[in-house]
Amino acid sequence: MKPSTAVTVTRYTAILVIGLAMGLPLFYLFSSSLMTPQDVSAYPPHLVPPEFRWANFSDAYDFLGGRTIANSFIYSFGIVILQLCIALPAGFALAKVRFRGSRALLVFFAIPMFLPNNVVLVPLYVVTNELGLIGSYAGLILPIVGRTAFATLLFRQFFLTLPDGLIDAAKLDRAGWLRIVRHVAVPLSGPAVAAYASITFLNSWNDFIWPLVAAPGDDYRVMTVALAPLAYQEGLSNVPPNVGMAAAVISVIPVLLVFVFTQRWYIQGVVGTGTDNT
Amino acid sequence: MRTKSAEATTGREGRAADTGGPRPRSEAPRRGPARRRFVSRDGTAAAVMIAPNAIMYMLFVIVPALAGVALSFYEWNLFDDPVFVGLDNYREVLTDDDAWAAMVNTIEFMVLGVLPTVLVGFVLAVLVNTRMRGVGTVRVLYFVPLVVSTAVASVLWSWLYQPQSGIFNYLLGLVGIDGPAWLANTSWALPALTLMIIWMSLPLVIILYLAALQRIPDEIMEAAKIDGAGVWRRVWQIIWPNVSAMTLLVLALQVLNFLSAPFETALIMTQGGPIDSTTALSLYIYRVAFEQGEIGAGSALSMIQFLLIVLLAGGLRLIHRVRVRRA
Asked: Residue B24: its pLDDT value, please?
């Protein structure tokens, strides 16, 4: 039975119109980041800039500061890389090494499923403060690295699908477990690493509350913390909205690029684990 | 040295066994002392692989969670010595009108947000779940909110919500409605924030439902084919019951999401105002702990919030079990 043309046209139209509506806010972000101060607050509002003001971006760069932009990269890459180093071997061990207590450990790593991050925000701050890490890169990065549950379970799930034969073959060559991790697990883990890295990068790049409380002051400030005051209209922000939008665009571009290129793995990771870990 | 030679022996034995006929069931030949040694070596290797992870996880997840329980029984401002006060913090927060107001706001966020996100996400997933040409490209538009952080979304949406020049009020003006000053209005600020959170939450829901839809057997999808009259009925009577397991997961995720997301969103966009109308429980906890410096009271509130989550999770499980039994 072939679908009727009318239904197909209706469906196409609906998909397109709703899709454009979902994308409209982001489109408006890009377009208003290029408007003049007059055009951005004009009534009726402009959807595309009548004239382009590229200087918004140099103003936005001055407002954010190079250090804040660099901090966002240090924070996100720091978390992605450090957590990968500790989560991948653990995920492999939980999937493929038989040892007493592995079931219990699995349950242990599943605890945070119902422990939203903000429930532990206050005591996490207390612990980090007692360790003397507040106001440093270590205090910014390590507590988030410690939230390994999602990554560990993601890697475990991936390694479960790895044929045992590969490991048996390596064992016959008398390779120890650590060599098996290095030479068998890591080279084959590409898709899992891509899914992990994509999801974890997006989440940490967009983190706001932990960088806000863990690193007061400008030295360790990340972009989300710099941008947030611009959203509060009652506040005394002296940054014009078009420049604020340009600053927001600067912070969106890296994550947009990462998502465009890793979309497939991002979706696989979310579907495989049933969560995006936010 | 001794262990090494023993390993070599078992290794050779294993190889010999492999060549001779079908492989014996699992680790059968490794009985006795050799097997024990093998297991303990695996235990050591596993410990090496897991320890760094487990230590970090203990330090920054488990210890804080336990510390949160302990801190809820103390009065502490981070600087002086903590004082044990028993259940005083709980008594204090349970008789605190602002805490109850925050609880009511939390429920309002959930009531306005959870079901619409789940239902709209499901409908949109069904809509874009097609192999029609070009849809794959357009589908990316539905994932756009994923790349937008709460901070960026807040900057952007607070401008869209502008009373005079914002796009929302312009569009309402086109149909003759005089839009409110969204974020400055005590009755509209909370729904306005909820709408933005729904926008940000839809991609995850759509992704999960798309996966569930693709797992439905072809014969069933064929019967539900959206190709003519009765589309609505088929979607809800044939497709919807077939994704009920996913609906449970999505519901649980969105309950947690609408418990957490209003925190950052309101902190950034309205600072909980106007007149505390957007202060959810999680934001109130932040206020009490970090702005008023009452770590103990904040921790007690966190415990209450956690209890709420456990109750909601239990409720969801119960609903699921009843439905499974009925099916």
From this structure: 41
Q: Which CATH class is domain A65-273?
A: mainly alpha
| Tokens 């192999």 -> residue | B131
Cα(B95)–Cα(B4) distance, integer angstroms: 68
The verdict on a CB contact (< 8 Å) between A252 and B147 is: yes
Residues of A in contact with B310 (CB under 8 A): 114
Domain end among B40, B71, B102: B71
Cβ contact B68–A208 (<8 Å):
no
For the segment A73-123, what is each residue's pLDDT rounded down to a tens digit?
A: 999 999 999 999 999 999 999 998 888 888 888 888 888 877 777 778 889
**Does A117 touch chain B if contact means CB atoms closer than 8 Å?**
yes
**What pLDDT, on a 0 to 100 scale, did the predictor assign at position A235?**
54
Domain finish residue from B11, B37, B71: B71
> Could you list the residue range(s) of the whole structural domain that residue B44 is in?
24-71
Chain segment B154-180, per-residue pLDDT in tens: 999 988 898 888 888 888 888 888 888
Report CA Rg, chain B.
28
**Closest residue of chain B to A150, computed from CA coordinates:** B57
Q: Which of A99, A112, A224 sits opposite B149 (nearest CB)?
A: A224
Burial class (CB in 10 A: 0-12, 13-18, 19+), A174: exposed
Cα–Cα distance for residue pair A235/B114, rounded to 1 Å: 30
Q: What is the pTM of this model?
A: 0.87
Chain A nearest-CA distance from B325, in A, is 24
Residues A96 and A184: their CA atoms lie apart, in Å, by: 12
